[in-house]
Design a protein that fits this description.
heterodimer, A: alpha+beta, four-stranded mixed beta sheet, 4 strands, B: alpha/beta, Aspartate Aminotransferase, domain 1, 2 domains, four-stranded antiparallel beta sheet, about 40% helix, binds pyridoxal-5'-phosphate
């Protein structure tokens, strides 16, 4: 039996209330837009790249607690990471949330703070809220100009 | 006891024997996450009484056959039941003839039928269609498509911040070029009951035809298309306690006669040669192919069911329940109602400080309470109120005040989670 507390963990409530790295970045190298048309979530992601690394990252938009906290946690984790590392994190996170297998401990440890979001797995309608920012990141890294949609 | 001393809310809560009614709905006995289901998503789709479920079951078990074509016994039985349901619909909305009752998949298809069959042949470049700012996407997009096809122009009646149409603005939009006016009877996103009698009269004064989207009204109030004098009226069976995939579009006979078929196929013809086809009479001209026979018969059973309870009783009971919910909601700090029209039915759309509707939906679900969160297929309404989404509780006559109380308790719990 999964409790609401597994979904709305302390960390998530906190990052929802005061999201980190929130705000538009004026001199961004990459900007990508993400939508979740079902719930109306909207997210802009801003990246500053430096020699294959994410020098700075921020986001703005409006979304539910899960999508806001996920974006906040993601941006915290991404700073200073190389693009290759960021893509690995994306794959890791996505797989943990979407495949049916029990969690691989090593993978979970690899996630660091992001692990707080794993409770979402037990709420299938909410997985998209947690992954929206990551899909948007992926699109920014590929320099895609079309907005990302979860549908 | 002097009846004058009884508070109006006590009278309205005893209009219906809600416990007896609930016993007719098997799904309501269910538990969700270990808690009794509190189903408050009736505006999306309503639950089905045993009477409807049994009617469907009986049709498939006892007399499943195609209609209008066989001379065998089962086909005759099925045809009789199908056409019998049409008569029920006719009486339900007080149409003057069964020729005016066309079965479609739902409100959406009904509106598309009018847009394509009536609109496409009658409208030309520069003609104007008027809708309102609070329409469901299904009463926006068909007209946008029609405008693209014909060069007609779409005009929109604005609403005020209570979620009421601004009638003076409507008056200004009407003109020589107005051909068609299409508005919702009750808004699914706000609960507003629109003054459609007035809207229809004003449209006619400019020789425009009026279509009413009755998707949210048919389950909650008595409809009389002759008294309304509307030209078209569309509604869905599934919101009226009937099956999904079936609905009705009513049209005045004089208009339907002159309209070309919407789709071609079997059943809608009198005679076909490879050169030419003679179309069937009304209403069959608009019902190409094997229809949703079970759906129509099930809709007939749903209409019998609500008619037995009585639409006036339903409206009075729900009015009391809605008032109760509005006043209960005003006791929840941080809750803001979206849609505060004076004339309002069965829908409570709201937002809460610092809590996204989507999170409210998940937390309520854990309490067994089903509500809808999102834009409710009315994105322009969300835009008007500058919100990405709302949470919406919508009631039916089987909902009780206890359930409203449970909703409010659960909303307090949402605040706990995000404290
Ligand atoms: C006001 C209104 N119009 C139209 C529709 C579309 O109905 P359907 O999806 O049954 O065709 C709905 C359903 O949500 C509605 O609420």
């Amino acid at each position: 039996m999964f409790d609401l507390k597994d979904l709305y963990q302390e960390v998530i409530v906190d990052h929802n209330r005061s999201p980190r790295n929130f705000g538009k970045m004026d001199n961004a190298d990459r900007v990508a837009e993400g939508f979740n048309p079902i719930c109306g979530d909207r997210l802009n992601l801003y990246l500053k790249l430096d020699d294959g690394r994410i020098a700075d990252v921020s986001f703005d938009g409006s979304g539910c607690a899960i999508s806001t906290a996920s974006a906040s946690l993601m941006t915290d984790e991404l700073k200073g990471k190389s693009i290759v590392e960021a893509e690995t994190m994306f794959n890791n996170f996505h797989q943990l949330l979407t495949d049916d297998k029990p969690h691989d401990i090593q993978r979970v440890e690899h996630l660091g703070k992001l692990a707080a979001l794993l409770g979402v797995k037990h709420y299938p309608t909410r997985v998209k809220c947690a992954t929206l920012c990551w899909h948007t990141l992926h699109s920014a890294l590929e320099d895609n100009k079309t907005p990302v949609s979860t549908e | 006891m002097n009846s004058k001393n009884i508070a109006p809310d006590i009278i309205s809560s005893s209009i219906l024997d809600v416990d007896a009614i609930r016993a007719d709905f098997p799904i309501l006995r269910q538990k969700i996450h270990g808690k009794p289901l509190v189903y408050l998503d009736n505006a999306a789709t309503a639950q089905k009484p045993e009477q409807v479920i049994k009617t469907l079951d009986n049709y498939y078990r006892e007399y499943n056959a195609n209609i209008h074509r066989g001379i065998h016994t089962l086909s005759q039985k099925a045809t009789e039941a199908y056409e019998g349901a049409r008569v029920k619909v006719q009486h339900f909305i007080n149409a003057s003839s069964i020729k005016e009752i066309i079965f479609v998949r739902g409100t959406t298809e009904g509106i598309n039928l009018v847009a394509q069959s009536y609109g496409r042949t009658r409208l030309k470049r520069g003609d104007e269609i008027i809708i309102s700012e609070m329409e469901h996407h299904s009463n926006i997009v068909p007209w946008q498509l029609l405008c693209e096809q014909t060069g007609a122009v779409l005009k929109v009646i604005p609403m005020n911040d209570a979620g009421e149409l601004i009638m003076e603005e409507f008056e200004k939009l009407l003109g020589k070029k107005t051909r068609l006016v299409s508005v919702g009877h009750i808004s699914n996103a706000l609960g507003t009951i629109n003054p459609i009698e007035k809207i229809i009269k004003m449209s006619h004064a400019y020789n425009a035809v009026a279509l009413i989207d009755g998707a949210q009204a048919a389950p909650h109030m008595a409809i009389d298309v002759q008294a309304l004098d509307c030209d078209f009226y569309a509604f869905s069976g599934h919101k009226l306690f009937g099956p999904t995939g079936i609905g009705v579009v009513y049209g005045k006979q004089s208009l339907l006669e002159d309209m070309p078929p919407y789709q071609g196929g079997g059943d809608m013809i009198k005679m076909v040669t490879l050169e030419k086809t003679l179309f069937n009479d009304l209403p069959y001209k608009f019902e190409a192919g094997t229809p949703h026979i079970a759906g129509v018969i099930g809709l007939g059973a749903a209409i019998d069911y609500v008619s037995d309870i009585g639409l006036e009783n339903i409206a009075a009971y729900e009015h009391g329940l809605t008032d109760y919910a509005i006043s209960a909601a005003s006791g929840v700090t941080g809750l803001k109602l979206i849609g505060t029209a004076r004339d309002k039915a069965s829908i409570l759309s709201f937002i809460m400080d610092g809590i996204h509707p989507h999170d409210i939906g998940t937390i309520l679900d854990q309490e067994g309470i089903a509500i809808r969160t999102g834009h409710h297929c009315a994105m322009p309404v969300m835009e008007h109120f500058h919100v990405p989404a709302t949470a919406r509780a919508s009631f039916a006559f089987y909902n009780k005040r206890e359930e409203v109380d449970q909703l409010m308790t659960a909303l307090e719990k949402c605040k706990e989670v995000f404290k």
